[in-house]
Amino acid sequence: MRTALVIGTGLIGTSAALALAGRGVAVHLTDHDLARARTAAALGAGTEDAPEGPVDLAVVAVPPAHVPAALAEAMRAGVARGYLDVASVKGGPRRELEALGVDMSAYIGTHPMAGKERSGPLAATADLFEGRPWVLTPTRETDTEVLNLALELVALCRAVPVVMDADAHDRAVALVSHTPQLISSMVAARLADADETAVRLCGQGIRDVTRIAASDPRMWIDILTANPGPVADVLAGVSADLEETVRALRALQSPDEDKRRDGASGVENVLRRGNAGRERVPGKHGAAPAVYETVAVLISDRPGELARIFADAGSAGVNIEDVRIEHATGQQAGLVQLMVEPSAAPVLSAALRERGWALRQ
């Protein structure tokens, strides 16, 4: 791939453009919002100049509702040898595109499983897709050359290609992406009118659950409007679990010992099913989730403290597998939780104590 046209310079489009430009591809940028295209160009994602002729690949990075029209316009203008979109819904846009009567052999639907709570070109990074799944949904009509261009794009963005049927993809993302967004928003909404005393008790658990609730509602309305059925199906299952759990919790308030026992069993059932589901979430590099030991360290809110603790861990020959930071409410301090291999935990603990860090159990 030598040339590409990115249509839509939001987070995903600009990130893909940055990755391509950084690996020597001549990238052309266009957006209905000229300011966004100028911003993306200023970041080094490519040029606003129109290509002199057809490019190798056109990447359509617009909201799902606008994908068919944008693709059809680009394909009828013959701007590229191959076309793909990066929308988070695949089945509906593909069917709409077929209804428009365009050449489907030149198109492949794709979806990089990456994103942020922030949107727009200023949130974009060239490494956004590194190590992340990038779904490809070829059909019988998809030309081999177009599939190869899509695979090259995925490789240049250092993502991991995953081939799926379009409708199977939509059911999958309803489960692992779209429904979690709604549930995170619902939990966060309980905080909007909560008493300030309760809000001050927020810890890492509520921060983890509500992190994605900070996402742009306008973007998610576009996504959910394009995939309402599969999301509603998943939510219906969650709703049934909620009703059962509410009944179990009410039973725990009963003076009847048998009812309390049944209630405890019901709550335990949903928690254990949650354990089983969590165990299926892929861990580092897509492998089965590993069990790590946590080394908790008290850290002050001063510049360079995180860098120093990582440097000290590196000097001890310990690889940090994951990290979490829990801020202390109203204090200039926090607790850094360093996740490491179990065999490395004693080594890291001893090394950090030797260097003056205060560890917590």
UniProtKB/TrEMBL annotation:
It comes from the Bacteria. Pfam families: PDH_C (PF20463), PDH_N (PF02153). It is an enzyme of class 1 (oxidoreductase). Pathway: Amino-acid biosynthesis; L-tyrosine biosynthesis; (4-hydroxyphenyl)pyruvate from prephenate (NAD(+) route): step 1/1. Residues 1-19 form the signal peptide. Residues 253-285 are annotated as: Disordered. GO terms for biological process: tyrosine biosynthetic process. Keywords: Amino-acid biosynthesis, Aromatic amino acid biosynthesis, NAD, Oxidoreductase, Signal, Tyrosine biosynthesis. Residues 2-282 form the Prephenate/arogenate dehydrogenase domain. GO terms for molecular function: NAD+ binding; prephenate dehydrogenase (NAD+) activity; prephenate dehydrogenase (NADP+) activity. Its EC number is 1.3.1.12. It catalyses: prephenate + NAD(+) = 3-(4-hydroxyphenyl)pyruvate + CO2 + NADH. Residues 294-361 form the ACT domain. Belongs to the prephenate/arogenate dehydrogenase family. This is Prephenate dehydrogenase. It comes from Streptomyces tirandamycinicus.
